[in-house]
Request: fold
Amino acid sequence: MLVRLTPRQRFDILVSQFEPAVRAAFIEAIDDITSNIVLRRIVERLERGDINGAINAMHLDPAAFRPLDEAIRAAFNGGGVATVEGMPTLRDPSGHRIVVRWDARNLAAEQWLQAHSAQLVTGIVQDQQNAIKTALETGLARGDNPTKTAVTVVGRVSAVTGRREGGIIGLTGPQSSFVATARDELLSGDPAQMRNYLERTRRDKRFDKTVAKAIADGKPVPAAMVDRITGRYADSLLKLRADTIGLHETFAALGASKDIAFRQQIEKGTLQAQHVTKGWKHTPQEHGRMQHIAMQGQVVPFDQSFTAPDGTAIPYPHAPGVPTMHTLGCKCFAEYKIDFVAQLVR
Reply:
């Protein structure tokens, strides 16, 4: 028996198809950057006090993130194709079937991809440069030698994997600060500060006994052990960053392509905007946004925005320009419906 999938099921399938690839593409980009780092060059520049030169030697180039661009493009195009394939058969007033296609080269589609990718990659690179500059300045000011300062940023090469691990490359500015603060807590010797470390959700709990012993002894955690602990903490935060980007960028690409796919049909005259509505669909999760829960079932005309309880106008979930408080971690989507009776008699 043929089972008809619900809009949510179809959307979930798309997310499961593209989100892992977007997440992996971000990790691939970071691996590309760290694997091409020559530590000696960075150290030489730090020895001369040339922090900007040290950052340049890390080659944090936008080109390194091309795999991420391509993964987002694949999700965007996949969402567009799925949208038109999921449209029920459209017929003109004479009863003839109307052919609908997704046009990946449509101006609006190309503009979204170009603007979105440029903003994303530029933001990642600039955030990296700022966070790394702060870390290098802090390390040198603390009295760490250039090698230790550089390794704290770029990580160490694992004897097991042959890849650099434990650095802050790939982390957001706030995440880099979390790592620095965790290091200070463990080296402080202050039981209260070291207990703060044990409250960090993303810590590697395998080191908890080591930290607990240091607290009981009233001594700081040995520096070499702190390097290991904060290295694993940084790796965990990098995984979180990849998960966040994978989810956010996939939802953004699928949401945009669905809206643009309908807009393409309207521009071609296949549909009329007044015959299309969109409904807000909240996806239940452990820590769902109360505002988005309240928006469940809200229906608006195609050319109008949803309205959040705080007054924010949202064209569709993850639309460009929507404040981060309404997008980060959001799993909502819009369901578009066509008034077939009105469409046929237009």
